[in-house]
Design goal:
Blueprint lengths: L1 E2 L2 H11 L4 E8 L3 H5 L7 E9 L3 E6 L4 E7 L2 E8 L1 E4 L5 E6 L5 E8 L8
Antiparallel strand pairs: 1-7, 2-3, 2-9, 4-5, 5-6, 7-8, 8-9
Length: 119
């Protein structure tokens, strides 16, 4: 993955506007937090192959990370904490947020075809 480049990512986001696309989004504190501190609540959110259609999409720089917002009919899909990105050979846009140890903290992926669900 490469460091965020807002211009390139905005161009990629714009390719998906007005299309039915598949969304993968996840965020996690990581299950390891309970090992480090048993009183810490691990938190996770995950959606794979959610079908969405958005009319507007933007990437914005915050402090040391980036956010992406996708305007859907009745609200927004929003991710914050993004640091890296790539476009796969299949044309899927992959965005991720890694902490300073390299652990994945948030992921946002967009595709015109369903993502492999693995087994």
């Amino acid at each position: 993955m490469l460091p965020i480049d807002t211009r390139s990512i905005q161009q990629e986001i714009n390719k998906y506007i007005g299309k039915d696309i598949y969304l993968h989004m996840e965020t996690s504190t990581g299950s390891y937090v309970r090992v480090q501190d048993p009183d810490t609540l691990p938190a996770c959110a995950y959606i794979r192959n959610g079908l969405i259609n958005f009319s507007e999409g933007k990437i914005v720089k915050n402090e040391a990370w980036y956010s992406v917002g996708l305007k859907i009919d009745n609200g927004w899909v929003y991710t914050e904490g993004l640091t890296d990105w790539e476009v796969t050979e299949e044309g899927q846009l992959l965005l991720a947020g890694h902490d300073k140890e390299g652990n994945l903290k948030i992921g946002l992926q967009l595709s015109e075809k369903p993502f492999n669900c693995g087994a």
